[in-house]
C-alpha cells in the first residue's frame, strides 16, 4: 500500500512566509497621520465674506467634513458674540489640500457688516471602514483585522487557535511519517499492521486539524464582512470606540481678526450720519454751554451733509429724508437757544451798567438756565453780589464810625474801641479807626498803669512786699519805659531779702540747738541730719561742718567696731529669702526680706505680677505661701505676710532713719540668676526724682542688681535697709533701688 502526506518542509516554509508577511505589511497599518487646519483667513467684497484655509498633514485618501462659525470681535473684551450665520457655500466633503474656500452670503442672513469679525473652521474625518485592510490583517493573524471593529480585548486568541491547529497538524504529519517508516521496516506482520493503522489515524487527524484551521480563518473573514457592514449603518462607542472616536474627533483653527465692511455707499452715508447724530445727541438736546452748542452745531451739520449724500444715492428715500429733517430741526433749536442766550446777556450787561442790580440778576439767571455751565453769567452774578456787598459794608462802616466817635467823646473807651475794631475789620485799609484804636490803647494803658502803681503803694505801706512787687512788675509790663517801677521793685526785693535773712537766721539757730542736743545724747545720725540742714542754710558757717566731720569719724569708728562686710552679711542674710512665682506657663524668680519677726516682708511688685502661684523660701529651708497686705504697680512694691507661720519668729532687718550721703558704702543680699544669698557691694552714686513719685524716689548705686536680685534689700554701711533693689543695666553700672521711706511699711509692723 502506498502512503502519501504533505511534507513537513512545506508546512515550515508556509509558517516562515506568514511571519515575513506580518513584518512587511504591519507598518502599512500602523502608520500615523496628524492632520491640521492652517492659514485660516478672512476677506470680503461688497456683498460676501470669504474664508480660506488649508488642510495638511493627512492621508490623500481621507475625506473630511468641514463646518464654520462667524464671531463678532468686541474691542477690549476677551470674548465675542457668535453670529447666527447659515448662508454658507462650500464643499461638504473635502480632501487634504490647500486653498479651500468657504463663502458666506451675509446679507442673506440679514447682516450688513461693518464690524471686526473672526471665523473658526472645524473639520472632522468622514467615517471610512476599510474592510479590505481588516481582511488582510486577518490573513496574517486571525482576529487581527477584527479588533478595531469591536471593543473586544482577546482577538489574538483567534490567531493562537488557528496557528495552534496548523502546528499540531504539522506535528501529527511528522508522527504519521515516522509510523509509516516503522511499518515499512517491520518484518512482523502483526506489528507492521499496527504501525500502518497508526500512521493512517495520525494522518487523518492531521487533515482534520488543518481543516479546523481553515474554518477559523473563514469564520474570521465572514465576521469582518458582517461587522463592517453593520458598523457603517449604526456607529456607536459600544460597537467600536476606535471608529466612533475617529468619526467624532474634530480639529479647528481660528482666523485673523478682520474689519469687514460690505455696506453700499448709501448705507455708509446713512450709518455715518446716524453715528454723528447719536454722538452729539446729548449736546444737541441739553447744551450746557456755548462751546457745547458750537460743537453740537458742527457735528449736526456734518450729519446733515451725510444724509444729503444718502439722498444723492437714493433721491426718493424716505428714511434719509426723515433723518435729514430731524437734524435740521435740532440745528434750528440750538441756534434759537444761542440767540436767546445772547439777548439775555446783552440785556443784563446794559442793566448792570445802570446799577439796576435786581433786573440784571434776573437776566443773568435766565441766561444761566439756558447754558448752566457757561461761566460768563456766573461771573456777572458774582460781580453783582460783590458790588451789593461793598455798598452794604460802606453803610455799616459809616454807622460804626459815627457811633464810636460819640462813645469816644463820652469817654466810654472800651465800647468805642470795640466799634472802631469792627469798622477796621470791615475796611482793613482805612487808617482812621486804627489811629483811634491806638489813641484809646494809650489812654487805657496810662490808666491801668496808674491803677497798678496806686494799689502797689498801698501794699508796700502795709509791708506786703511780695504782693507789692507783683503789682509793680505788672505795672512795668504795662509801661516798660517808666523808671518808677524799677526803683520800687528793688525796694521790695531789699525788704523781702531782709525778712528772708531773718527767717534763715532763726531756722539756723533752731537746727543748731536741736543738733547739739542730739549730739550730746549720742544720737549721731539725728544730730548729723540737723547739722546738715543748718549748713545748707548758712554755707559759710564752719561750726556745723566741723560737727558733721566729727560725727562721721565717730560713726566710722562705730562701724569698725561692729565689724566688716562679712560680719554684716552674717547678721543680715537670714532676713533675706528667695521668691519663686509662676503663671502655669513660665516661672519668675526674685528676692524679698522680712521687716517684722511675725513674717511681714517687702519685695518688688513686678516679681509677682501676672502670676497665680507665689512661694518664698527662707534660708533655714522653710517654704511658705503668702497673703498680700498692699501692693502698688506704679511704685513697684508689694507688702505681704507669711501664711500660717505658726509660732516661728523670723529674722528681720533694721530700717535706717537717715539716708547715707553720696559716695558712702552700700551692699545688697539677693538671689541673682537663682544663686541664693549672694552679697554684692558698692557705693551710693546718687538720688533720683520722678515726676509721679516725688523727690529722692530712686537710690542710684553701682552695686550689681541682676535678674533674681529684684525685691532684695539695699543696706547702708551699718547693715540698715535704705531701699528695695529694683532694676538696672550692666552697661555703665547703673542700678536703682526704691527709697524705703517712700513705702508705707510702718503701719504693718509691730502689730
Which terms would index this structure?
751 residues, Immunoglobulin-like, 6-stranded antiparallel β-barrel
Summarize the structure.
This protein is of the alpha+beta class and 751 residues long.
Describe the structure.
The chain has about 750 residues and is α+β, with helices and mostly antiparallel strands. Among the domains are: about 10 and about 130-235; about 35-125, Immunoglobulin-like; about 265-360, no CATH class; about 565-750, Thrombin, subunit H (Beta Barrel). It is flat. The termini are far apart. Residues about 5-15 and about 20-30 have low confidence and may be disordered.
Strand content: 15-25%
List the uncertain runs. 5-13, 22-32
Name given to the CATH architecture of one domain: Beta Barrel
Question: CATH topology of one domain, what is it called?
Answer: Thrombin, subunit H
Largest sheet: 6 strands, antiparallel, barrel
Number of beta-strand segments:
22
**What form results from the Cα inertia axes?**
flat
The CATH class of one domain is Mainly Beta
Amino acid at each position: 500500500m502506498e502512503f502519501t502526506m504533505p511534507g513537513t518542509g512545506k508546512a515550515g516554509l508556509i509558517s516562515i512566509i506568514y511571519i515575513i508577511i506580518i513584518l512587511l505589511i504591519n507598518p502599512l497599518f500602523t502608520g500615523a497621520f496628524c492632520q491640521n487646519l492652517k492659514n485660516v483667513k478672512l476677506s470680503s467684497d461688497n456683498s460676501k465674506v470669504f474664508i480660506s484655509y488649508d488642510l495638511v498633514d493627512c492621508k490623500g485618501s481621507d475625506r473630511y467634513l468641514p463646518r464654520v462659525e462667524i464671531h463678532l470681535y468686541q474691542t477690549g473684551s476677551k470674548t465675542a458674540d457668535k453670529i447666527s450665520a447659515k448662508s454658507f457655500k462650500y464643499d461638504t466633503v473635502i480632501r487634504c489640500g490647500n486653498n479651500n474656500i468657504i463663502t458666506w452670503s451675509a446679507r442673506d442672513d440679514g447682516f450688513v457688516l461693518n464690524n471686526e469679525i473672526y471665523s473658526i473652521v472645524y473639520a472632522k474625518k468622514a467615517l471610512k471602514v476599510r474592510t479590505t485592510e481588516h481582511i488582510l490583517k486577518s490573513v496574517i493573524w486571525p482576529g487581527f483585522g477584527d479588533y478595531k471593529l469591536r471593543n473586544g480585548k482577546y482577538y489574538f486568541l483567534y490567531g493562537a487557535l488557528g496557528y495552534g491547529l496548523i502546528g499540531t497538524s504539522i506535528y501529527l504529519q511528522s508522527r504519521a511519517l515516522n509510523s509509516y517508516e516503522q511499518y515499512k521496516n517491520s518484518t512482523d506482520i502483526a506489528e507492521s499492521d499496527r504501525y500502518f493503522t497508526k500512521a493512517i489515524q495520525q494522518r487523518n487527524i492531521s487533515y482534520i486539524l488543518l481543516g479546523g484551521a481553515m474554518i477559523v480563518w473563514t469564520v474570521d473573514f465572514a465576521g469582518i464582512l458582517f461587522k463592517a457592514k453593520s458598523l457603517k449603518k449604526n456607529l456607536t462607542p459600544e460597537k467600536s470606540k476606535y471608529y466612533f472616536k475617529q468619526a467624532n474627533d474634530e480639529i479647528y483653527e481660528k482666523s485673523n481678526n478682520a474689519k469687514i465692511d460690505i455696506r453700499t455707499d448709501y448705507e455708509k452715508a446713512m450709518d455715518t450720519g446716524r453715528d454723528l447724530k447719536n454722538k452729539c445727541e446729548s449736546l444737541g438736546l441739553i447744551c450746557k454751554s456755548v462751546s457745547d452748542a458750537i460743537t453740537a452745531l458742527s457735528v449736526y451739520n456734518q450729519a446733515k451733509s451725510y444724509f444729503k449724500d444718502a439722498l444723492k444715492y437714493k433721491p426718493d428715500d424716505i428714511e434719509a429724508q426723515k433723518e435729514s429733517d430731524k437734524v435740521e430741526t435740532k440745528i434750528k433749536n440750538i441756534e434759537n437757544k444761542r440767540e436767546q442766550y445772547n439777548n439775555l446777556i446783552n440785556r443784563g450787561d446794559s442793566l448792570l451798567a445802570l446799577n439796576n442790580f435786581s433786573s440784571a440778576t434776573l437776566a443773568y439767571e435766565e441766561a444761566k438756565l439756558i447754558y448752566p455751565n457757561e461761566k460768563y453769567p456766573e461771573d456777572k452774578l458774582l460781580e453783582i453780589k460783590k458790588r451789593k456787598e461793598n455798598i452794604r459794608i460802606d453803610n455799616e462802616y459809616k454807622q460804626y464810625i459815627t457811633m464810636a466817635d460819640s462813645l469816644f467823646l463820652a469817654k466810654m473807651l472800651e465800647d468805642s474801641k470795640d466799634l472802631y475794631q469792627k469798622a477796621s475789620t470791615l475796611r482793613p485799609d482805612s487808617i482812621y479807626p486804627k489811629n483811634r484804636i491806638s489813641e484809646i490803647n494809650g489812654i487805657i494803658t496810662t490808666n491801668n498803669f496808674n491803677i497798678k502803681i496806686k494799689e502797689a503803694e498801698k501794699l508796700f505801706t502795709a509791708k506786703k512786699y511780695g504782693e507789692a512787687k507783683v503789682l509793680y512788675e505788672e505795672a512795668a509790663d504795662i509801661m516798660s519805659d517808666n523808671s518808677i517801677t524799677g526803683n520800687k521793685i528793688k525796694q521790695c526785693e531789699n525788704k523781702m531779702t531782709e525778712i528772708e535773712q531773718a527767717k534763715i537766721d532763726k531756722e539756723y539757730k533752731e537746727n543748731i540747738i536741736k543738733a547739739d542736743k542730739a549730739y550730746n545724747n549720742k544720737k549721731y545720725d539725728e544730730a548729723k541730719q540737723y547739722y546738715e540742714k543748718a549748713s545748707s542754710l548758712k554755707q559759710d558757717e564752719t561750726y556745723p561742718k566741723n560737727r558733721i566731720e566729727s560725727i562721721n569719724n565717730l560713726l566710722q569708728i562705730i562701724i569698725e567696731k561692729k565689724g566688716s562686710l562679712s560680719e554684716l552679711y552674717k547678721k543680715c542674710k537670714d532676713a533675706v529669702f528667695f521668691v519663686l512665682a509662676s503663671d502655669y506657663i513660665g516661672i519668675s524668680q526674685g528676692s524679698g526680706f522680712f521687716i517684722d519677726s511675725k513674717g511681714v516682708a517687702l519685695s518688688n511688685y513686678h516679681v509677682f505680677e501676672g502670676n497665680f502661684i507665689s512661694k518664698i523660701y527662707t534660708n533655714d529651708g522653710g517654704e511658705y505661701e503668702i497673703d498680700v497686705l498692699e501692693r502698688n504697680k506704679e511704685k513697684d512694691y508689694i507688702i505681704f505676710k507669711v501664711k500660717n507661720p505658726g509660732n516661728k519668729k523670723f529674722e528681720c532687718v533694721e530700717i535706717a532713719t537717715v539716708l547715707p550721703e553720696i559716695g558712702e558704702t552700700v551692699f545688697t543680699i539677693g538671689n541673682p540668676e537663682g544663686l541664693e544669698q549672694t552679697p554684692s557691694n558698692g557705693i551710693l552714686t546718687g538720688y533720683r526724682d520722678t515726676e509721679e513719685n516725688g523727690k529722692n524716689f530712686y537710690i542710684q548705686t553701682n552695686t550689681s542688681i541682676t535678674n533674681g536680685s529684684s525685691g532684695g534689700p539695699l543696706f547702708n554701711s551699718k547693715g540698715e535697709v535704705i531701699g528695695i533693689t529694683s532694676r538696672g543695666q550692666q552697661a555703665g553700672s547703673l542700678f536703682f533701688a526704691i527709697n524705703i521711706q517712700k513705702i508705707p511699711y510702718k503701719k504693718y509692723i509691730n502689730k
